[in-house]
Amino acid sequence: MSTPIVVYGAYWCPDCRRSKRFLSEHQIAYTWVDIEQDKKAQAYVEKLNNGKRIIPTIVFEADGDFLVEPSNAQLAQKLGLATRDPHDFHDVTIIGAGPARRRNFHPRRFLFTAMRAISLTATSPTARPTNRIPAPLMANHWARTKSD
């Protein structure tokens, strides 16, 4: 079964590794095609890029669109991922909060309304906010504070 996103690149390419890491971190399925091992894929990439071998070339099969050497921000925009934080303020900011910290988060340890976790593997060169807070924490806290 093929995925709707195909990443054409080479293992030695740092931009290809960055794009694959970005898609994996956001749990977005994709198919990897190494153009050095697949000459038909290399010809396809060159056809898309007017005869140039530019990688990564990421093809979105759903709409036939493709991105060439996209930044993380361009990928996020194409995939409809939020790049701006909707909150005006945060009670707690955690720097360097990767997936393991979010998994180990225990709501009963903290009493706050909003959290901002900043990952150093960001869509911008500095940091990326996330809103991955367990829903019960937000709902329970707001129910207490709004009724007071």
Strand order of the largest sheet: 2-1-3-4
Quantity of strands, as a count: 7
Per CATH, which architecture of the largest domain?
Answer: 3-Layer(aba) Sandwich
**Range of strand content:** 15-25%
What is the 3D form?
elongated
Average pLDDT rating: 75
What would you give as the CATH superfamily of the largest domain? Glutaredoxin
Kindly name the structural category.
Answer: alpha/beta
Distance between the termini: 53 Å
The CATH topology of the largest domain is given as Glutaredoxin
- Strand and helix order: EHEHEEHEHEEH
Instruction: Tally the structural domains.
Output: 2
Number of helices: 5
Helix content: 25-40%
Query: Major beta sheet, specifics?
Result: 4 strands, mixed
Indicate the low-confidence ranges by residue numbers: 122-130, 133-148
Gyration radius from CA atoms, angstroms: 20 Å
Structure description:
The chain is α/β, with parallel strands linked by helices and 148 residues long. The chain folds into 2 domains: 75 residues, Glutaredoxin, CATH 3.40.30; 56 residues, no CATH class. The protein is 32% helix and 20% strand. The protein is built from 5 helices and 7 strands; from the N terminus they run βαβαββαβαββα. The strands form 2 sheets. Strands 2-1-3-4 form a 4-stranded mixed β-sheet, with helices on both faces. It has a 3-stranded mixed β-sheet with strand order 5-6-7, with no helix packed on it. The longest helix is centred in the last third of the chain and has 13 residues. It is elongated, with a radius of gyration of 20 Å.
